[in-house]
Specification:
The complex is a heterodimer of chains A (392) and B (140). Chain A is of the alpha/beta class and 392 residues long. Chain A is built from 14 helices and 11 strands. In chain A, a hairpin with a 2-residue loop joins β5 and β6. Chain B is globular. The chains are: A alpha/beta (392), B mainly beta (140). At the A-B interface, α5, α6 and β5 of A face β4, β5 and β6 of B.
Chain lengths: 392, 140
């Protein structure tokens, strides 16, 4: 078990959806201001900003690299470093690990992590084509028509083949996420959804149907990581970063040799060991989704289904409101919306929100320990992070 | 709306022999003469031992489907007219994997584990020849 060095003390988020009139900068600043105020801090209390990468606008991405947020947030001549961290969908877990490392090394005390993007406002085909380049080899895969929905479909087929998971169980993942999203005012999709409706939606890439493919959205979120020793003086509900495990398994999906598991078993073992917290003590699973297969595969790797098959576990309602293991209570990318790199950030920020006791109508009662997962590109890496209301 | 053509491979200095072989209807993979590693797709040096002593050797052109999907809608630009098409990861009998399309008789009914054999298709309006796969005899 590792001695805890870092804690999250403030969060901010803007609603996810299609907001063509809301600029990425506006959303970023709104989320940052909310996080700083949530922590009860001022702009000059922040010593490092770690912006994520933004995909829709090259201009905004360059602004993030070149300290625009520092200036807009009133941190000129007090901020020590502005440095972009980018690992696609895995930026959430990765940026938290980088912030924790800077704090543990004594190089920072208050780190502001922020994402903002507007991939939802791209024309539909531009969105498809953009995500057909994120982890897809131009030379070895794109010429065959590879794309992000196919990534989800290829993994789903192999996972179903090896585990016996059914199409109805995949649909049940979408339904459980929707039930949580209906309680989340920041979610893009908040109308009821049934397994039958998912099964009746248009086939996109077998076996994935339209309602099993995420929708691109605009969004922004921010959080502040502080030294663990300072955390209780800043916040009365700090979230301690207890353990992290990760493994990069591939760049191109076609080189992956264990597509039904990826690196989640290895990442989970490492994270549980570092945290000194095992699967039996996890009360909330904030699982990176994007397509229904990934939560199932992650639940398997994390050992959270008490011996049941993940598909059967989810279909029985165990991860939905009222179930034994609340999962991705913001609704995930399938219901809150996929904001690019921010899909994972929203999953992570929801973990903080729940552990801080600020999740409103969807608050999980008596929560102490949660697990968060993430993966980037074509599920190139498997990240597992353990978070707790208690430090070690 | 502009019609975009499908993306074509832009060979690198070390992958050019692969695409030249494909134009000659031959599927080749790399072999490391230092450690014996078999490599696909072509690399600058051996990912096992970092030796640059790589050679291209003919593959048998046979293997099995590791996973697959039939794209029915929402394809990337340039693939609209090909719908539905079958995208697959093939595990060659040499043990290496590659992405490709399943084409020909029975392609839409192909399943994981099916045996496949390489074939070659010229992409119209280019000098690119893509290795693709057909279901082996007896599984059509």
């Amino acid at each position: 078990m590792k001695k805890t060095t870092a804690a999250v003390v403030g969060i901010g988020e803007v609603p996810t959806g299609k907001y063509p009139d809301r600029s990425e900068l506006d959303a970023a600043l709104t989320a940052c201001r909310a996080a700083i105020l949530d922590a009860g801090l001022g702009p000059r209390d922040i010593d490092v900003i770690l912006p994520t990468g933004a995909l829709a606008s090259r201009h905004f991405n360059v602004d993030l690299v070149f300290s625009r947020l520092c200036e807009e947030l009133g941190m000129n001549r007090s901020l020590k470093m502005n440095c972009q961290v980018m690992a696609g969908g895995a930026t959430s877990s990765s940026i938290l690990a980088v912030a924790e490392g800077l704090i543990a090394a004594g190089m920072a005390r208050r780190v502001l992590c922020v994402h903002s993007d507007a991939v939802g406002s791209l024309p539909k085909q531009a969105g498809i084509d953009l995500f057909a380049t994120t982890g897809v080899s131009e030379e070895w895969e794109a010429p065959y028509g590879h794309n992000m929905n196919a990534v989800g479909a290829l993994a789903t087929q192999r996972y179903m083949h090896e585990t016996g998971t059914t199409e109805e169980e995949l649909a049940a993942v979408c339904v459980a996420l929707r039930k949580w999203a209906m309680l989340n005012p920041h979610a893009m999709f908040r109308t009821p959804l049934t397994v039958e409706e998912v099964m009746a939606s248009k086939m996109v890439a077998t076996p994935l149907r339209a309602k099993e493919c995420n929708m691109l959205a605009d969004g922004a979120a921010a959080f502040i990581v502080a030294a663990a020793g300072d955390a209780r003086a800043i916040s009365d509900s700090p979230v301690f970063v207890r353990g992290h495990g990760s493994l990069v398994t591939h760049y191109t999906l076609s080189q992956e040799r264990d597509l039904a598991r990826l690196g989640f078993p290895e990442a989970a073992r490492a994270a549980y060991a570092e945290a000194g917290i095992g699967p039996e003590a996890i009360q909330l699973a904030q699982i990176y989704d994007a397509y229904p297969v990934w939560p199932l595969m992650s639940l398997d790797g994390l050992g959270l289904c008490r011996g049941a098959r993940a598909g059967a576990f989810v279909a029985a309602g165990e991860t939905a409101p009222g179930g034994s293991l609340p999962m991705t209570t913001n609704g995930g990318m399938l219901s809150q919306g996929h904001t690019g790199v921010g899909g994972g950030i929203a999953v992570l920020v929801e973990a903080f929100r729940q552990l801080m006791g600020k999740a409103g109508e969807r608050q999980v009662a008596g929560l102490v320990n949660a697990v968060e997962t993430a993966s980037g590109g074509t599920w190139m890496d498997s990240h597992v992070t353990i978070l707790s209301r208690e430090a070690a | 709306m502009t019609t975009q053509t499908r993306p074509l491979p832009q060979p690198s200095a070390w992958s050019a022999p692969f695409w030249q072989a494909a134009r000659n209807r031959s599927l080749v993979i790399q072999h490391c003469t230092a450690c014996g590693e078999k490599i696909m797709y072509p690399r600058r040096f051996c990912p096992n031992c970092l030796s640059e002593a790589l050679e291209f050797v003919p593959a048998k052109g046979t293997g099995e489907i590791y996973t697959l999907t039939t794209q029915m809608a929402g394809p990337p630009s340039g693939f609209e007219a090909m719908l539905p098409y079958v995208l697959a990861v093939i595990r060659l009998d040499e043990g290496v994997q590659m992405m490709s399309n399943i084409v020909g008789d029975g392609a839409l009914g192909a399943r994981i584990g099916d045996r496949v054999t390489v074939d070659f298709v010229a992409v119209e309006g280019s000098d690119t020849v893509l290795p693709v796969f057909r279901l082996a005899e007896g599984r059509q």
